[in-house]
């Protein structure tokens, strides 16, 4: 059989760093990638086969873009799913399927889905407005999550006590029991049209000892074989029950009792999978490509333990980006810098990431913290 | 110190697969790459920041191209070195240095250099024309090599006996003693402006048991520690004596007595280094980039034993390329396909390569041969 992937055009909605890293994999397969993004300076711009500047939430823009592609996928959730539904009806392959993107866009729909399908998740109550949240003072401590258009922390509010209730969202949201978790982990799963399904080894978030911040991510997660297996089963279960094709990052809590609770999912490559480029036999970006293009999935085994540190713009610096400490970092064995093609830095803007490979997990963690100190993005 | 590699423009003379793979590394550093190539469909075309179609051997073309770059390098030897000399005089960084490219372009100059610098190489005689070659019948068996413009086998003629003398080149050439070698190996070395120098682990050519053809390349080479060390020393010695900055592939023979003889060098990434993308801590392409951009060199250790199989267009097929056997191949753990962006296949055209990772070297060789059987490029 002759497989002609290079004859198919893949369109990606979103032209950020996730799409950029998918293109980096696609180059090896001669697959032409079309990108749609509102930003003319989008990270994908210069390496895409074709770039269209336009709004991802606009029906006509997405529809016109999609007509020139054979297969469509996303690298960001906030897209016009009606246009994708129309394109799918007209015979385009759209993965993830539009109704799944739509479900995931709404955190309330997401949580209901877990509940209805016996997927373990923290208890929650749907709330239509602030008054409804305020009525749940017995449910605290809790997390108030906006139903739609919450991204990267905007749309999530922790309510420790009644004093916090005034911060509740004035819009359809949910109130979820605050989990006293032991660990936060993530499992990325992929599934293709043929139903082939596999999971990447769980990744763990390393928290700052006192501040409630994630310092870096590392794999393999330091969890028991039992918890490891359970986490993978839960992630695969979500994928199967969604009947989704594509790649799905499942963020989970491991409770003090070793139970798994699904926190959130993202139907695209995810920050918790960046290390896979150097650390695993197949990267999440390659896997995303394979899953939507109808190719066989790749092996996800870890080759070497790895940590991933995000490179965020330093606070107090805005302007043309400069990377401080690059030479020192890249002179080290097993340190890999990925810059995202963004010329301008702003405080906390995701400008790149660094992956560290190291066989000894304690040495790995030490190196990850050291890298965080060495590399700074300033202007 | 703030290192601003992303503010420098790198120009590469040549837009083939070697340049394409350098660009794949450069993407991670936000380094903009300009490409010059005569072919409008060159492999680099769609992923280069800027592409100029033009002749690499033309002075004005190369000079005008180079004026818009900060740093210049090559991915093919046959370029106009006078233009590069002029650009270097005008303050551009040109690596490899033009006089070194010029020396290597001429096999006679190359061999003289080895002789004058005590670099071990097979005995040879310079010959100005066919008559001069014919006068060397006592020197046979030998290899007749054209001085200039021999590439990929064109310009090399084996003279087993007097009967072959009529095939000798009618142009300045050299006659080199045919080496009864035990193995053919290759060592790639890199050196930056700061004088930092390191070598990749030696790679071995695996020959067909009867036909005199290389079936695949693999690393680590199956040579003694002593030969391994000697090979690396010789390669570094060549680099140091050339005082070259950039990357140099040194092809060598290991004689029946375990001696090293330098066969040829290439001042650019080389076929014998393709496996390094997945197999080593740093790839040769990344290393090429680092060496010419003034960045610290990367660690070259092998992570996993690897083999590399070239994907050449099947004999008898010309036209739009189709890859037969792709699915079967990429479903295997540790198999990596790299297609070079060439739409049209021709018999024996270099269309891509496949790298196989496998801890057990005998299993590795078996898998390499199996992959050769599975993947075919047809039209």
Automatic annotation (TrEMBL), chains A, B:
Pathway of action: Purine metabolism; IMP biosynthesis via de novo pathway; 5-amino-1-(5-phospho-D-ribosyl)imidazole-4-carboxylate from 5-amino-1-(5-phospho-D-ribosyl)imidazole (N5-CAIR route): step 1/2
UniProt xrefs under InterPro entries: ATP-grasp, ATP-grasp_carboxylate-amine, ATP_grasp_subdomain_1, PreATP-grasp_dom_sf, PurK, PurK_C, PurT/PurK_preATP-grasp, Rudment_hybrid_motif
GO molecular function: 5-(carboxyamino)imidazole ribonucleotide synthase activity
ATP-grasp domain segment(s): 111-293
SUPFAM superfamilies to which the protein is assigned, alphabetical: Glutathione synthetase ATP-binding domain-like, PreATP-grasp domain, Rudiment single hybrid motif
Function (record text): Catalyzes the ATP-dependent conversion of 5-aminoimidazole ribonucleotide (AIR) and HCO(3)- to N5-carboxyaminoimidazole ribonucleotide (N5-CAIR).
HAMAP family cross-referenced by the UniProt entry: PurK (MF_01928)
Keyword Oxidoreductase belongs to the record: no
Top-level EC class: ligase
EC number: 6.3.4.18
Keyword line: ATP-binding, Ligase, Nucleotide-binding, Purine biosynthesis
Catalytic activity: 5-amino-1-(5-phospho-beta-D-ribosyl)imidazole + hydrogencarbonate + ATP = 5-carboxyamino-1-(5-phospho-D-ribosyl)imidazole + ADP + phosphate + 2 H(+)
Similarity section: Belongs to the PurK/PurT family.
Entries under PANTHER family matching the protein: PHOSPHORIBOSYLAMINOIMIDAZOLE CARBOXYLASE, PURINE BIOSYNTHESIS PROTEIN 6/7, PUR6/7
Assembly behavior: Homodimer.
Protein name: N5-carboxyaminoimidazole ribonucleotide synthase
Signal sequence region: none
Keyword Ligase appears in the UniProt entry: yes
Originating gene: purK
Originating species: Echinicola jeungdonensis
Pfam family, one: PurK_C
Residues involved in ATP binding: 107, 145, 176-179, 184, 263-264
């Amino acid at each position: 059989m002759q497989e002609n992937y290079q004859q198919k055009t893949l369109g990606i909605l979103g032209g950020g760093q996730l799409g950029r890293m998918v293109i980096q994999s696609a180059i090896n397969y001669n697959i032409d990638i079309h990108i749609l993004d509102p930003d003319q300076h989008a990270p994908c711009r210069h390496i895409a086969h074709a770039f269209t500047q336009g709004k991802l939430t606009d029906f006509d823009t997405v529809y016109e873009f999609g007509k020139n592609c054979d297969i469509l996928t996303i690298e960001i959730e906030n897209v016009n799913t009606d246009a994708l539904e129309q394109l799918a009806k007209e015979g385009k392959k759209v993965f993830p399927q539009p109704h799944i993107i739509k479900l995931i866009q709404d955190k309330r729909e997401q949580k209901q889905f877990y509940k209805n399908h016996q997927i373990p998740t923290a208890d929650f109550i749907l709330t239509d407005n602030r008054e409804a949240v305020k009525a749940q003072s017995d449910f605290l401590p809790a997390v108030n999550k906006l139903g739609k258009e919450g991204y990267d922390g905007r749309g999530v509010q922790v309510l420790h006590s009644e004093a916090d209730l005034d911060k509740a969202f004035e819009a359809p949201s949910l109130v979820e029991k605050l989990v006293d978790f032991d660990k936060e982990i993530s499992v990325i799963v992929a599934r293709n049209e043929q139903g082939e399904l596999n999971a990447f080894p769980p990744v763990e978030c390393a928290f700052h000892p006192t501040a409630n911040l994630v310092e870096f991510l590392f794999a393999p997660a330091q969890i028991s074989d039992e918890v490891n297996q359970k986490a993978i089963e839960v992630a695969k279960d979500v994928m199967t029950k969604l009947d989704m094709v594509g790649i799905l990052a499942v963020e989970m809590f491991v409770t003090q009792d070793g139970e798994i609770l699904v926190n959130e999912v993202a139907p695209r490559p995810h920050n918790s999978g960046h290390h896979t480029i150097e650390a695993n036999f197949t990267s999440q970006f390659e896997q995303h490509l394979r899953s939507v293009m109808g190719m066989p999935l790749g092996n996800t085994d870890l080759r070497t333990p790895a940590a991933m540190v995000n490179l965020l713009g330093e606070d107090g610096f805005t302007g043309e980006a400069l990377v401080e400490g690059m030479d020192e970092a890249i002179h080290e064995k097993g340190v890999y810098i990925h810059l995202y093609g963004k010329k301008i830095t702003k405080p906390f803007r995701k400008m790149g990431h660094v992956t560290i490979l190291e066989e000894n997990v304690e040495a790995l963690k030490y190196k990850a913290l050291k890298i965080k100190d060495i590399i700074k993005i300033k202007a």
